[in-house]
Predict the 3D structure of the following.
Amino acid sequence: MRQHPISPVTEPLQYRAIGVVRGRYVPDDAGQLTRGHIHTEDGTVIEAVVLGRVLNLMRRHLDLATPHLWVVYPRFRETDFLHLQMVGVWEPSTLATNSDGAETTDGTPASAPTASEASAEGATPPEPQRSDALPEGDDYFSVRGELIYTRPESADLVIKVRQMPRPDGSRPTPFKLQLKGTVPMEHLRHFVSLDVRRTGQQLHMERFEVIAPMPQRGNRGGKARGKGQGDRGPSRDGARKTSPRSGPATGGPATGPHRNAIIRPGR
């Protein structure tokens, strides 16, 4: 039985971006629950979409007129405007939690709360003794990925998050999250783990941990090995490559010391 809506990290370089937001979900169309906005307790209105079986949970078990602690994936489709993908709700005081299944879209396996999945399938009685509050508090996010931009003077960060391959084998495009916080420049191109808090439409870093430098992929200069080197350096055996001028004028291989031929008139 899971005690937290966000699963523990299982691999050092495990990418993810997931968090919780408390608020009242208001669909744009009463007949279509898939798109709407979350009205938070601090007065912020955040664009949101509903994913997977959370729709069944909404229709059968939740009172959308009251606030809930939603489990969400953060995105920024527009600068300075947060966009949330809703994948579950954490409410163990009223919802059963006997399943480990979770539907994900950003490469974070089993990160959605089991409460939503169990209730959507119509499961066991609730456990009112359990608390809905999390140790990290509301509006907490866990972000893990590559630090590709940091500007300490303006407290701007950009984290690249890669996603797991789809069932058909295709790889989704990595996405970027714009955060507020200060990370020194020497940690650029490192894999980092961040504890983040939502404030209004922004995500503010509270703590960071540098996990490891990111492996370099290929030659950043764009040239294949062994091409375009000419006689600029030694060959693999340590000898400098000879110039083409050391061979005969015909371009064939040199077989010995090259001597210039002297042509005399009449011969």
Summary: The longest strand covers residues 16-29.
